[in-house]
Amino acid sequence: MASVAESRSAVAYDDDDRGYGWLVFAAAMLGIAGIFSVIDGIVALSRSKFYVGSAVYVFSDLRTWGWITLIVGVVAIFAALGVLSRTQWARWFGMIAAGLNAVSQFLFIQGYPFWSLIVFACDVLVIYGLAVYGGRTSRAA
Predict the structure, then answer these.
(1) Would you call 30 helix, strand, or coil by DSSP?
(2) How far is CA 22 from CA 9, 78, 92, 127, in A?
């Protein structure tokens, strides 16, 4: 009888912590992508010669995209901190922040193409991790 109770508690433990690695990975990658976006925004605002000179943006110029990328990066950093709290609002806030960051990087692709694709791929992994494993909460024993 004790072996059945032990196996049930082991299964419950495995189910609760099954996606915790993805959750930590998503939070870390969201924070890193946010830091990269903040750096991209600061560089775009300070030294625009770092990026491709003849780039044509969707609307406006490099300085406008620098501000947009900077603001979205700060939002992504706050979302990464919130994701570690394992609440539903932080999960959704993290997915929205990663989606905004992915769109801003995708539209910023004319300035620095390969770097934008790398950050875009990180954001896609964050959205996957939060969508699949972010909703799990630990059960009270």
Answers:
(1) helix
(2) 22, 18, 15, 11
Structure token digits, residue 73: 């990066």
53 within some domain: no
Task: Report if residue 82 sits inside a domain.
Answer: yes
Q: Does a structural domain hold residue 28?
A: yes
HSE toward the beta carbon, residue 63, CA cutoff 13 A = 1
Question: In this predicted model, what pLDDT tens digit does every residue of 56-110 receive, in sequence order?
Answer: 766 677 788 888 889 999 999 999 999 888 888 888 999 999 999 888 888 878 7
Q: What distances in angstroms separate CA 23 from CA 71, 78, 109, one per listed residue?
A: 24, 15, 28
pTM of the model: 0.76
The burial of 2, by beta-carbon neighbours within 10 Å (0-12 exposed, 13-18 middle, 19 or more buried), is given as exposed
